[in-house]
Amino acid sequence: MRPSLILTVLLALAFPLQAQASAEIFSVAVTVKPVHSLVAGIMKGAGRPLLIMSSSASPHHYSLRPSERRALANASLIFWVGPELETFMPRILDSLDPSSTNIALIKAKGLLRLPARTIDHHADTQARIDPHIWLSADNAHAMVDAIADELGRLDAAHADIYQANKKRLHQRISETDGQIGRKLSGKTSGFLSYHDAYQYFENAYGLNNAGFVSSGDEISPSAKYVHELRDIIQKQQLHCLFYDAPNRPALVDTLTRGLAVDVLELDAMGIQLEPGENTWFEIMNKLAEACESCL
Ligand SMILES: [Zn+2]
């Protein structure tokens, strides 16, 4: 074969039907794994949503790869959390075809929005919402409603499937919620979390966060603040410190040196889980197991 022909064949193998997919087929993209999981559940039997942020980088400081940018540009419908989490999205959305639709689920009807907590008491937190909204069953219910309604509106041919899946998911979320509630009832001893990502989970199950190191901005805390946290651990006799997967921060050892504190890894984003319909449930169950075992 001539080199140009070989190239054509290779390209056809590498990118089958890509042009057709972007032009004609209804395609759905979702930024983060926990939300992707709920969208995959609603779309089961009708299609598969594409997950955009599949690496383990923190969503708070993510920079999109060119391929991820293209995938967003090719989607007919994009689900994301909101500018508080995917800070790169407003700029990307400005550059997209105006005919594509995007839904920021942080604005979903009936969703609980908690103000972000901060370690800087002078910071203006009034305007900022804690973006880790998926870590409560009530918010999952609200998101499932918003996802199913929007899919049904834009892809009416599959509206029946979306509605049936919505009902199924509501039931499954309620079951998981009940199980976790029973598992964590009475787990009121205080703990520290490294990154303040678990407020919605704590709020839902009556857990008692005694402090955190970072609120998401990844700025290293001052020596004075670290000292204060060690004081809190000792005075309140805390015995659990949670940090986020996948990396154990070096500061964890400074914080807990000489103290009887168990250090456990949590995975709010499902970084270590396969993407799919079950991921949201696995994230919640794993959080519950870690809290049950430590608190
Ligand atoms: Zn976070």
Describe the 3D structure:
By secondary structure, this protein is an alpha/beta fold. It has 2 domains: 159 residues, Rossmann fold (3-Layer(aba) Sandwich), CATH 3.40.50; 110 residues, Nitrogenase molybdenum iron protein domain (Rossmann fold, 3-Layer(aba) Sandwich). Helix content is 44%, strand content 12%. It is built from 11 helices and 8 strands. A 4-stranded parallel β-sheet has the order 2-1-3-4, covered by helices on one side. A 4-stranded parallel β-sheet has the order 6-5-7-8, with helices on both faces. Helix 3 links the parallel strand 1 and strand 2. Helix 6 packs antiparallel against helix 7. The longest helix is centred in the middle third of the chain and has 26 residues. The protein is globular. About 3% of the residues have low confidence. The site of zinc ion has 5 residues, from loops.
